[in-house]
Specification:
CATH topology: Cytochrome p450
CATH architecture: Orthogonal Bundle
Number of strands: 12
CATH class: Mainly Alpha
Helix content: 40-55%
Transmembrane segments: 241-268
Strand content: 5-15%
Largest sheet: 5 strands, mixed
CATH superfamily: Cytochrome P450
Protein name: p450 monooxygenase
Pfam families: p450
Radius of gyration: 21 Å
Strand order of the largest sheet: 1-2-8-5-3
Keywords: Heme, Iron, Membrane, Metal-binding, Monooxygenase, Oxidoreductase, Transmembrane, Transmembrane helix
Number of helices: 18
GO molecular function, one term: monooxygenase activity
Shape: globular
Length: 411
Protein backbone atom coordinates (compact mmCIF):
# COMPACT_ATOMS: atom_id res chain seq x y z
CA UNK A 1 0.00 0.00 0.00
CA UNK A 2 1.33 3.42 -0.99
CA UNK A 3 0.48 6.81 0.38
CA UNK A 4 0.84 10.16 -1.30
CA UNK A 5 3.81 12.19 -0.15
CA UNK A 6 3.13 15.51 1.55
CA UNK A 7 3.86 18.39 -0.83
CA UNK A 8 7.10 20.26 -0.23
CA UNK A 9 7.75 23.97 0.17
CA UNK A 10 9.22 23.98 -3.33
CA UNK A 11 6.04 22.42 -4.72
CA UNK A 12 4.01 25.07 -2.91
CA UNK A 13 6.15 27.78 -4.54
CA UNK A 14 5.62 26.18 -7.94
CA UNK A 15 1.88 25.97 -7.30
CA UNK A 16 1.70 29.63 -6.35
CA UNK A 17 3.61 30.63 -9.49
CA UNK A 18 0.92 28.89 -11.56
CA UNK A 19 -1.66 31.17 -9.96
CA UNK A 20 0.44 34.28 -10.56
CA UNK A 21 1.42 33.51 -14.17
CA UNK A 22 -1.27 34.22 -16.79
CA UNK A 23 -3.49 32.61 -17.84
CA UNK A 24 -5.25 31.69 -14.60
CA UNK A 25 -5.66 27.88 -14.41
CA UNK A 26 -9.06 26.42 -15.28
CA UNK A 27 -8.96 24.29 -12.15
CA UNK A 28 -7.07 26.06 -9.33
CA UNK A 29 -8.27 23.76 -6.54
CA UNK A 30 -5.38 21.27 -6.66
CA UNK A 31 -3.09 24.29 -6.30
CA UNK A 32 -5.03 25.49 -3.26
CA UNK A 33 -4.84 22.02 -1.71
CA UNK A 34 -1.06 21.97 -2.18
CA UNK A 35 -0.74 25.33 -0.43
CA UNK A 36 -3.03 24.26 2.41
CA UNK A 37 -1.07 21.03 2.86
CA UNK A 38 2.28 22.83 3.13
CA UNK A 39 1.30 25.88 5.14
CA UNK A 40 -1.98 27.77 5.27
CA UNK A 41 0.19 30.90 5.60
CA UNK A 42 2.86 30.22 2.99
CA UNK A 43 5.91 32.43 2.57
CA UNK A 44 6.89 32.06 -1.08
CA UNK A 45 10.31 32.41 -2.66
CA UNK A 46 8.98 35.66 -4.17
CA UNK A 47 8.57 37.15 -0.69
CA UNK A 48 4.79 37.10 -1.04
CA UNK A 49 2.73 35.42 1.66
CA UNK A 50 -0.22 33.34 0.42
CA UNK A 51 -3.12 32.63 2.77
CA UNK A 52 -5.30 29.65 1.83
CA UNK A 53 -7.18 28.83 5.05
CA UNK A 54 -10.58 30.27 5.93
CA UNK A 55 -9.66 31.53 9.39
CA UNK A 56 -6.37 33.03 8.21
CA UNK A 57 -7.92 34.79 5.21
CA UNK A 58 -10.77 36.15 7.33
CA UNK A 59 -8.33 37.46 9.96
CA UNK A 60 -6.35 39.37 7.33
CA UNK A 61 -9.42 40.85 5.63
CA UNK A 62 -10.72 42.16 8.95
CA UNK A 63 -7.48 43.91 9.89
CA UNK A 64 -8.21 47.65 9.78
CA UNK A 65 -4.66 48.93 9.34
CA UNK A 66 -3.42 47.02 6.29
CA UNK A 67 -3.30 48.69 2.88
CA UNK A 68 -4.59 47.66 -0.51
CA UNK A 69 -2.25 45.13 -2.07
CA UNK A 70 -3.71 45.78 -5.51
CA UNK A 71 -2.84 49.46 -5.16
CA UNK A 72 0.71 48.64 -4.09
CA UNK A 73 1.14 46.14 -6.95
CA UNK A 74 -0.13 48.60 -9.56
CA UNK A 75 2.20 51.33 -8.34
CA UNK A 76 5.19 49.02 -8.65
CA UNK A 77 5.03 49.82 -12.36
CA UNK A 78 7.11 52.95 -12.90
CA UNK A 79 4.83 53.95 -15.78
CA UNK A 80 1.50 53.30 -14.02
CA UNK A 81 0.42 56.96 -14.30
CA UNK A 82 0.73 56.72 -18.10
CA UNK A 83 -2.02 54.08 -18.24
CA UNK A 84 -5.58 55.36 -17.89
CA UNK A 85 -6.84 51.91 -16.86
CA UNK A 86 -4.48 51.87 -13.87
CA UNK A 87 -5.16 55.50 -12.94
CA UNK A 88 -8.91 54.87 -12.90
CA UNK A 89 -8.45 51.64 -10.95
CA UNK A 90 -6.23 53.36 -8.37
CA UNK A 91 -8.93 55.99 -7.88
CA UNK A 92 -11.65 53.40 -7.42
CA UNK A 93 -13.04 52.60 -4.00
CA UNK A 94 -11.68 49.06 -3.87
CA UNK A 95 -8.01 50.13 -3.99
CA UNK A 96 -8.15 53.18 -1.73
CA UNK A 97 -6.57 53.21 1.72
CA UNK A 98 -7.76 55.01 4.85
CA UNK A 99 -8.92 57.69 5.20
CA UNK A 100 -9.94 58.01 1.52
CA UNK A 101 -11.46 54.55 1.41
CA UNK A 102 -13.81 55.25 4.31
CA UNK A 103 -14.80 58.63 2.87
CA UNK A 104 -15.61 57.32 -0.64
CA UNK A 105 -17.19 54.09 0.61
CA UNK A 106 -19.38 56.08 2.97
CA UNK A 107 -20.62 58.26 0.11
CA UNK A 108 -21.30 55.22 -2.09
CA UNK A 109 -23.09 53.41 0.73
CA UNK A 110 -25.24 56.49 1.31
CA UNK A 111 -26.66 56.33 -2.21
CA UNK A 112 -26.39 52.55 -2.74
CA UNK A 113 -28.57 51.76 0.26
CA UNK A 114 -30.45 48.57 1.24
CA UNK A 115 -33.74 50.45 0.77
CA UNK A 116 -32.80 51.45 -2.79
CA UNK A 117 -31.79 47.87 -3.54
CA UNK A 118 -35.08 46.60 -2.12
CA UNK A 119 -36.97 49.03 -4.34
CA UNK A 120 -35.32 47.35 -7.32
CA UNK A 121 -37.16 44.06 -6.65
CA UNK A 122 -40.02 44.71 -9.14
CA UNK A 123 -37.53 45.78 -11.82
CA UNK A 124 -35.40 42.69 -11.15
CA UNK A 125 -38.43 40.42 -11.47
CA UNK A 126 -39.51 42.16 -14.69
CA UNK A 127 -36.05 41.77 -16.25
CA UNK A 128 -35.92 38.11 -15.20
CA UNK A 129 -39.27 37.35 -16.82
CA UNK A 130 -38.34 39.17 -20.04
CA UNK A 131 -35.04 37.35 -20.45
CA UNK A 132 -36.44 33.91 -19.56
CA UNK A 133 -39.22 34.44 -22.11
CA UNK A 134 -36.58 35.29 -24.69
CA UNK A 135 -34.71 32.11 -23.80
CA UNK A 136 -37.94 30.14 -24.33
CA UNK A 137 -38.30 31.62 -27.82
CA UNK A 138 -34.65 31.23 -28.80
CA UNK A 139 -34.41 27.62 -27.60
CA UNK A 140 -37.78 26.45 -28.93
CA UNK A 141 -36.30 24.56 -31.90
CA UNK A 142 -33.79 22.70 -29.78
CA UNK A 143 -30.90 24.85 -30.98
CA UNK A 144 -28.14 25.62 -28.45
CA UNK A 145 -28.23 29.02 -26.78
CA UNK A 146 -25.49 30.91 -24.98
CA UNK A 147 -26.40 31.49 -21.33
CA UNK A 148 -23.78 34.25 -21.02
CA UNK A 149 -24.97 36.20 -24.05
CA UNK A 150 -28.70 35.83 -23.39
CA UNK A 151 -28.90 35.80 -19.59
CA UNK A 152 -25.74 36.13 -17.49
CA UNK A 153 -24.61 39.34 -19.20
CA UNK A 154 -27.84 41.23 -20.01
CA UNK A 155 -29.64 40.53 -16.72
CA UNK A 156 -27.30 42.22 -14.19
CA UNK A 157 -26.29 44.87 -16.74
CA UNK A 158 -29.96 45.81 -17.14
CA UNK A 159 -30.42 46.00 -13.37
CA UNK A 160 -27.37 48.18 -12.67
CA UNK A 161 -28.22 50.33 -15.70
CA UNK A 162 -31.68 50.88 -14.21
CA UNK A 163 -30.11 51.87 -10.87
CA UNK A 164 -27.67 54.27 -12.51
CA UNK A 165 -30.26 55.65 -14.90
CA UNK A 166 -28.40 54.48 -18.01
CA UNK A 167 -30.11 53.48 -21.26
CA UNK A 168 -30.25 49.70 -21.42
CA UNK A 169 -29.40 49.74 -25.12
CA UNK A 170 -25.94 51.01 -24.13
CA UNK A 171 -25.51 48.11 -21.73
CA UNK A 172 -23.83 45.48 -23.89
CA UNK A 173 -21.11 47.80 -25.17
CA UNK A 174 -20.38 49.24 -21.74
CA UNK A 175 -20.31 45.70 -20.33
CA UNK A 176 -17.70 44.66 -22.90
CA UNK A 177 -15.61 47.72 -22.10
CA UNK A 178 -15.88 47.27 -18.34
CA UNK A 179 -14.95 43.61 -18.72
CA UNK A 180 -11.80 44.59 -20.64
CA UNK A 181 -10.94 47.27 -18.07
CA UNK A 182 -11.20 44.72 -15.25
CA UNK A 183 -8.33 42.70 -16.75
CA UNK A 184 -5.85 44.80 -14.75
CA UNK A 185 -7.66 44.57 -11.40
CA UNK A 186 -5.72 41.59 -10.07
CA UNK A 187 -2.27 42.96 -10.88
CA UNK A 188 -1.55 39.78 -12.87
CA UNK A 189 -1.97 40.58 -16.55
CA UNK A 190 -0.21 40.51 -19.91
CA UNK A 191 0.86 43.48 -22.05
CA UNK A 192 -2.09 42.67 -24.32
CA UNK A 193 -4.45 42.80 -21.33
CA UNK A 194 -3.07 46.21 -20.32
CA UNK A 195 -3.46 47.60 -23.84
CA UNK A 196 -7.06 46.35 -24.02
CA UNK A 197 -7.79 47.76 -20.55
CA UNK A 198 -6.38 51.18 -21.53
CA UNK A 199 -8.48 51.32 -24.70
CA UNK A 200 -11.58 50.28 -22.77
CA UNK A 201 -11.00 52.80 -19.96
CA UNK A 202 -10.53 55.59 -22.51
CA UNK A 203 -13.84 54.78 -24.20
CA UNK A 204 -15.64 54.27 -20.90
CA UNK A 205 -14.54 57.62 -19.49
CA UNK A 206 -15.64 59.33 -22.71
CA UNK A 207 -19.06 57.70 -22.48
CA UNK A 208 -19.57 58.48 -18.80
CA UNK A 209 -18.33 62.06 -19.21
CA UNK A 210 -21.24 62.60 -21.59
CA UNK A 211 -23.60 60.93 -19.12
CA UNK A 212 -22.38 63.13 -16.26
CA UNK A 213 -22.89 66.27 -18.35
CA UNK A 214 -26.44 65.20 -19.14
CA UNK A 215 -27.16 64.45 -15.47
CA UNK A 216 -25.84 67.83 -14.38
CA UNK A 217 -28.13 69.50 -16.89
CA UNK A 218 -31.15 67.42 -15.89
CA UNK A 219 -30.77 65.43 -12.63
CA UNK A 220 -33.15 62.58 -11.88
CA UNK A 221 -34.02 60.28 -9.00
CA UNK A 222 -31.34 57.67 -9.65
CA UNK A 223 -27.95 56.55 -8.36
CA UNK A 224 -26.00 58.49 -10.99
CA UNK A 225 -27.67 61.79 -10.09
CA UNK A 226 -27.02 61.18 -6.40
CA UNK A 227 -23.30 60.59 -7.04
CA UNK A 228 -23.01 63.65 -9.26
CA UNK A 229 -24.66 65.69 -6.51
CA UNK A 230 -22.10 64.45 -3.99
CA UNK A 231 -19.36 65.73 -6.31
CA UNK A 232 -21.15 69.06 -6.63
CA UNK A 233 -21.17 69.26 -2.82
CA UNK A 234 -17.38 68.90 -2.81
CA UNK A 235 -17.40 65.35 -1.40
CA UNK A 236 -15.70 63.86 -4.51
CA UNK A 237 -13.30 65.34 -7.01
CA UNK A 238 -13.82 64.70 -10.73
CA UNK A 239 -11.45 61.73 -10.98
CA UNK A 240 -12.94 60.13 -7.88
CA UNK A 241 -16.44 60.61 -9.28
CA UNK A 242 -15.51 58.98 -12.58
CA UNK A 243 -13.66 56.12 -10.89
CA UNK A 244 -16.56 55.47 -8.52
CA UNK A 245 -19.12 55.39 -11.32
CA UNK A 246 -16.95 53.06 -13.39
CA UNK A 247 -16.37 50.78 -10.44
CA UNK A 248 -20.02 50.65 -9.33
CA UNK A 249 -21.10 49.84 -12.88
CA UNK A 250 -18.48 47.10 -13.19
CA UNK A 251 -19.05 45.67 -9.71
CA UNK A 252 -22.80 45.90 -10.27
CA UNK A 253 -22.75 43.25 -12.96
CA UNK A 254 -19.49 41.31 -12.58
CA UNK A 255 -20.39 39.18 -9.56
CA UNK A 256 -23.87 38.30 -10.84
CA UNK A 257 -22.72 37.64 -14.40
CA UNK A 258 -20.12 35.17 -13.18
CA UNK A 259 -22.46 33.66 -10.58
CA UNK A 260 -25.14 32.94 -13.20
CA UNK A 261 -22.74 31.31 -15.64
CA UNK A 262 -20.77 29.32 -13.08
CA UNK A 263 -23.96 28.49 -11.18
CA UNK A 264 -25.76 27.09 -14.22
CA UNK A 265 -22.73 24.95 -15.06
CA UNK A 266 -22.50 23.72 -11.45
CA UNK A 267 -26.16 22.68 -11.53
CA UNK A 268 -25.65 20.85 -14.83
CA UNK A 269 -22.71 18.99 -13.28
CA UNK A 270 -24.75 18.14 -10.15
CA UNK A 271 -28.12 16.97 -11.51
CA UNK A 272 -29.28 15.57 -8.18
CA UNK A 273 -28.91 18.98 -6.54
CA UNK A 274 -30.66 20.62 -9.49
CA UNK A 275 -33.56 18.16 -9.13
CA UNK A 276 -33.64 18.83 -5.39
CA UNK A 277 -33.92 22.60 -5.88
CA UNK A 278 -36.70 22.20 -8.43
CA UNK A 279 -38.66 20.12 -5.93
CA UNK A 280 -38.09 22.37 -2.91
CA UNK A 281 -37.84 26.14 -3.44
CA UNK A 282 -37.57 26.69 0.31
CA UNK A 283 -33.84 25.96 0.00
CA UNK A 284 -33.33 28.97 -2.30
CA UNK A 285 -31.53 31.14 0.32
CA UNK A 286 -28.97 28.47 1.18
CA UNK A 287 -28.77 27.35 -2.47
CA UNK A 288 -27.70 30.83 -3.56
CA UNK A 289 -25.09 30.99 -0.79
CA UNK A 290 -23.77 27.54 -1.71
CA UNK A 291 -23.44 28.50 -5.38
CA UNK A 292 -21.53 31.60 -4.31
CA UNK A 293 -19.23 29.48 -2.15
CA UNK A 294 -18.77 26.55 -4.50
CA UNK A 295 -18.35 28.33 -7.83
CA UNK A 296 -15.52 30.46 -6.41
CA UNK A 297 -15.72 33.13 -9.11
CA UNK A 298 -14.10 35.66 -6.74
CA UNK A 299 -10.65 34.13 -6.34
CA UNK A 300 -8.36 36.50 -4.44
CA UNK A 301 -7.71 39.79 -2.75
CA UNK A 302 -4.42 41.22 -1.51
CA UNK A 303 -3.11 43.47 1.24
CA UNK A 304 0.14 45.30 2.02
CA UNK A 305 1.22 45.10 5.65
CA UNK A 306 1.87 48.43 7.38
CA UNK A 307 3.33 46.82 10.50
CA UNK A 308 4.51 43.38 11.58
CA UNK A 309 1.54 41.05 12.00
CA UNK A 310 1.00 37.43 13.06
CA UNK A 311 -1.55 35.23 11.33
CA UNK A 312 -2.00 31.53 11.98
CA UNK A 313 1.13 31.50 14.10
CA UNK A 314 3.26 32.91 11.28
CA UNK A 315 5.00 36.25 11.68
CA UNK A 316 4.69 38.51 8.65
CA UNK A 317 6.93 41.60 8.49
CA UNK A 318 5.96 45.13 7.57
CA UNK A 319 5.86 46.17 3.92
CA UNK A 320 5.11 42.85 2.23
CA UNK A 321 2.27 41.72 -0.04
CA UNK A 322 -0.14 39.16 1.42
CA UNK A 323 -2.40 37.28 -0.99
CA UNK A 324 -5.76 36.22 0.44
CA UNK A 325 -7.01 33.29 -1.65
CA UNK A 326 -10.76 33.68 -1.20
CA UNK A 327 -11.75 30.71 -3.34
CA UNK A 328 -9.30 28.50 -1.46
CA UNK A 329 -10.85 29.65 1.83
CA UNK A 330 -14.29 28.85 0.43
CA UNK A 331 -13.16 25.25 -0.09
CA UNK A 332 -11.27 24.93 3.21
CA UNK A 333 -12.17 21.51 4.67
CA UNK A 334 -11.54 22.85 8.17
CA UNK A 335 -14.52 25.18 7.67
CA UNK A 336 -16.65 23.39 5.07
CA UNK A 337 -16.73 19.58 5.43
CA UNK A 338 -16.45 17.78 2.07
CA UNK A 339 -15.78 21.21 0.51
CA UNK A 340 -15.81 20.17 -3.15
CA UNK A 341 -19.34 18.77 -2.90
CA UNK A 342 -22.20 21.03 -3.97
CA UNK A 343 -24.78 20.88 -1.17
CA UNK A 344 -27.59 23.38 -1.70
CA UNK A 345 -28.74 23.12 1.91
CA UNK A 346 -25.25 23.55 3.38
CA UNK A 347 -25.15 25.75 6.46
CA UNK A 348 -21.55 26.01 7.66
CA UNK A 349 -21.41 29.77 8.09
CA UNK A 350 -20.44 32.64 5.84
CA UNK A 351 -18.36 32.23 2.69
CA UNK A 352 -15.91 34.90 1.53
CA UNK A 353 -17.11 35.46 -2.03
CA UNK A 354 -17.94 39.06 -1.13
CA UNK A 355 -14.77 39.46 0.94
CA UNK A 356 -14.96 40.58 4.60
CA UNK A 357 -14.03 43.49 6.83
CA UNK A 358 -13.83 47.07 5.61
CA UNK A 359 -13.78 46.03 1.94
CA UNK A 360 -16.84 43.78 2.21
CA UNK A 361 -18.87 44.16 -1.00
CA UNK A 362 -22.04 46.04 -0.14
CA UNK A 363 -23.41 45.11 -3.58
CA UNK A 364 -23.66 41.51 -2.38
CA UNK A 365 -27.28 42.02 -1.34
CA UNK A 366 -28.15 43.03 -4.90
CA UNK A 367 -26.43 39.94 -6.35
CA UNK A 368 -28.27 37.72 -3.85
CA UNK A 369 -31.64 39.27 -4.73
CA UNK A 370 -30.97 38.81 -8.45
CA UNK A 371 -29.88 35.18 -8.04
CA UNK A 372 -32.79 34.31 -5.72
CA UNK A 373 -35.25 35.49 -8.36
CA UNK A 374 -33.51 34.18 -11.46
CA UNK A 375 -32.42 30.62 -10.60
CA UNK A 376 -35.82 29.30 -9.38
CA UNK A 377 -37.55 30.72 -12.47
CA UNK A 378 -34.88 29.34 -14.79
CA UNK A 379 -34.97 25.79 -13.41
CA UNK A 380 -38.79 25.76 -13.27
CA UNK A 381 -39.13 26.99 -16.85
CA UNK A 382 -36.69 24.46 -18.28
CA UNK A 383 -36.95 20.87 -17.08
CA UNK A 384 -33.85 19.91 -19.04
CA UNK A 385 -30.63 21.94 -19.13
CA UNK A 386 -27.63 20.34 -20.81
CA UNK A 387 -24.20 21.53 -21.88
CA UNK A 388 -23.99 21.86 -25.67
CA UNK A 389 -20.33 22.64 -26.23
CA UNK A 390 -17.13 23.78 -24.58
CA UNK A 391 -17.60 26.84 -22.33
CA UNK A 392 -15.41 29.86 -23.02
CA UNK A 393 -13.38 30.46 -19.89
CA UNK A 394 -12.60 33.91 -18.52
CA UNK A 395 -9.18 33.11 -17.12
CA UNK A 396 -7.74 36.00 -15.13
CA UNK A 397 -6.66 36.21 -11.51
CA UNK A 398 -9.16 37.76 -9.13
CA UNK A 399 -12.51 37.25 -10.85
CA UNK A 400 -13.11 34.23 -13.04
CA UNK A 401 -16.10 33.06 -15.01
CA UNK A 402 -17.18 32.30 -18.56
CA UNK A 403 -17.34 34.33 -21.75
CA UNK A 404 -19.74 31.79 -23.26
CA UNK A 405 -21.77 28.85 -22.00
CA UNK A 406 -23.61 26.94 -24.76
CA UNK A 407 -26.58 24.87 -23.53
CA UNK A 408 -29.70 23.20 -24.82
CA UNK A 409 -32.90 23.92 -22.94
CA UNK A 410 -35.94 21.64 -22.83
CA UNK A 411 -39.40 22.21 -21.38
Amino acid sequence: MTTEATPTTQQADEALMKLLSPPFPDDPFPIYETLQSVNRVHKSALGIYALSGYEEVTELLKMPDVHSGARAAAQMREDWAEHISLRMYLNSMVTLNAPDHGRVRGLAARVFTPSKIKKMQPAVEKRTDELINELVERSAGGEPVDIVELLAMPFPVAVISDMLGLPYEDGKRTWELADDWSRVFSGVYTDEDLAAADAAAEELTGYFNDVIKAVRAEPKDDLMSALVQEAANGKLDEEELMALILFLFTAGFAATTNLIATGVLALIEHPDELKRWRADKSITPTAVEELLRHTAHTTASSRLTTRPITIGGTDIPEGVLVLALLSAANRDPARFPDPHRLDLSRDNGAHLSFSAGGHFCFGGSLARMEAADLFPKLIDTFTNIELAGTPGRRAIMGLTGYTSLPVTLGR
